Structures are given as structure tokens and as C-alpha cells.
Fold this sequence. Notes:
Layout: E1 8-11, H1 18-29, E2 33-35, H2 36-44, H3 57-68, E3 76-78, H4 84-91, E4 98-103, H5 106-114, E5 116-119, E6 124-127, H6 154-177, E7 181-185, H7 189-201
Parallel strand pairs: 1-3, 1-4, 2-3, 4-7
Antiparallel strand pairs: 5-6
Domain Adenylate kinase active site lid: 116-151
Pfam families: ADK (PF00406), ADK_lid (PF05191)
Family: Belongs to the adenylate kinase family.
Amino acid sequence: MASKLLRAVVLGPPGSGKGTVGERIARSFGLQHLSSGQFLREILGIGGGEGRGGGGFGSIAAAFLPLTTAPFCRDACTGFPRTLGQAEALDRICELDLVISLNIPFETLKDRLSARWVHPASGRVYNMDFNPPHVQGVDDLTGEPLVQSQDDRPEAVAARLRKYKDAAKPVIELYKSRGILHSFSGTETNKIWPYVYTLLSSKIPPVLSDEEN
């Protein structure tokens, strides 16, 4: 485990690679990766993708996350906070050391999301372009069917991205004003990751080299 506590979150629009970056951070620095969607699925015992705005599971996420993040502020979280209200609630629980913001072009996000399929029970995500399942249409581990969320269908993607941009703008401005926001731009997670790794290495000692991850 890392010898120093690090309180960090990874922000980014749907399809930006938050989960991938969070998992790499966890492996490289000995931190616990906390995904808001997975955490709530385990607590509530329900399937589906990460909580998204607009009611339903997203409303549950907004209500539960300020209550459930308290024991986990030592770690690296992805998918939270999504709104200024959630950021303010997080402030009452712990003080963040840094915030990583992933800036991905709209066309890249649209292509990623439209090709994304999910295993509802676990939240495992596949992309038919660069991370397809071994057998088309079924989960690698369980053999159960994959589904495409209505939110990931091409006609819904643009609206989702606009909604994220509107909600995230004040959150990003808040962390920028505090001097803890670090933004990374690009179209491929593998090309963004070395810069994230270098940033974090300046804060805490890694347990894996960049090449080992």
C-alpha cells in the first residue's frame, strides 16, 4: 500500500475512460479504486450501468453518495462528484488532494459510447471496436447476455454529453479555483495515462512502474 494517503477523484464525460484510469491508478499506487456505479450496485443489490442523470438510478446515486463515501476518502474515486451539490457534500466529508479531469473530443466519445455494451449484473463494459467480448454478445466471465443501454444508443449520446458538460462545468471551475485540478486531453487512454502516472508519482510513491502496468 502507498505510504501516504491520497484523496483523489477522476472526472470525465461518459465514455472518457474514467474506470480504466481509476483501475490503473489503483494498481500502480496501491490505492483502492472506488467506482460510484459499482459501489451502489453492490450496496443496493441491483444491476445496470453507472448511475446517470435524469431520474431512476441516477437519482438514487445523488441521494446515497454523500452518505456512503465517508469511509472511503483515503482512496481514488471515479464517477463522483457529478454535480456541484455532490462536490459540496464531499467537502463536508474530506478534503481532496487532487482532481484529474479527462478531456476527450466529442466525436471520440460518441464513437466509444455507440459501440459500448454492458454486462448488467457486474457493470463490466465492452467496446466492440477495441475491447470486444471473446464471444459476440455475451460476457466473458459468466456467458450471460450483454445489453446496450438506451443511453448509449447513437440518438441519445449527444444529449448525455450536453447534460454532463452543463453539470460538470461548475464542479471543474470549483476545483480549478482551488489549484487542485489537473486536466488531460487526448483521444486514447493509453496516451493520456503516462502523464497521469507522472503527476501521481510526484505525490506518492508508485508500487509498479509505468511499464509494469
